[in-house]
């Protein structure tokens, strides 16, 4: 049976008719060794002879010469027989920029995997919208990096609103400092989250709760993830099995992620009531 390409919208999509074998082989060549991108970077600003490139990159001489010859052969570098210098060609400049873009895209995709593994619901947006977002995750060397990042951005914003299933002590400290600036905060959390912080840090919590710029709201409908807005930009928080912040995703105010986050926040906000001691 023959697939109806028109029916499935596949007509005219590159690679669906004649796979660009030669182009794929070039991509494979460029990606096969980090040395090749390093060499393209090394001559991006100034042409150089092999000895200078060895000093710039630390690449062994035999490896250097072999890869230089291969890059020249494919048209990404040019070689001057007079000066002995290697220079970046127009094609080399294009593929260098494309490689850096591809590496950045792969890094973003890799950072999304652990976040999405810990985020308990699907985010119904196109993959490209998620790829444009920034993810900050925790690791063994810095387990509080997501919390510290949000606290820093929190301090740079003029207004904040959102919901949290749990309130990290660092968030409470951030709220205290933020409230003193006169900026506005609207926070929705379960009653148990407030009670926990009030028990651990009664004076600090009372200072936050009594601040005129802070509105604390209670809702039993807060899900097992966090949604926040810092001057319109959306922040989503994922938690680990111990209810510690595992990672956060930051998306721009005009993104599809922010639109989805807004619907989640409004749904929870409608169920909330003012916090009372």
From TrEMBL:
GO molecular function, one term: DNA binding
GO biological process, one term: regulation of DNA-templated transcription
Stored InterPro entries: ArsR-like_HTH, FilR1_middle_dom, HVO_A0261-like_N, Tscrpt_reg_IclR_N, WH-like_DNA-bd_sf, WH_DNA-bd_sf
Pfam families the UniProt entry points to: FilR1_middle, HVO_A0261_N
PROSITE patterns documented for this protein: HTH_ICLR
Domain HTH iclR-type, chain residue ranges per copy: 30-90
Name used for this protein in its record: Predicted transcriptional regulator, contains HTH domain
Phylogenetic placement of the source organism: Archaea, Methanobacteriati, Methanobacteriota, Stenosarchaea group, Halobacteria
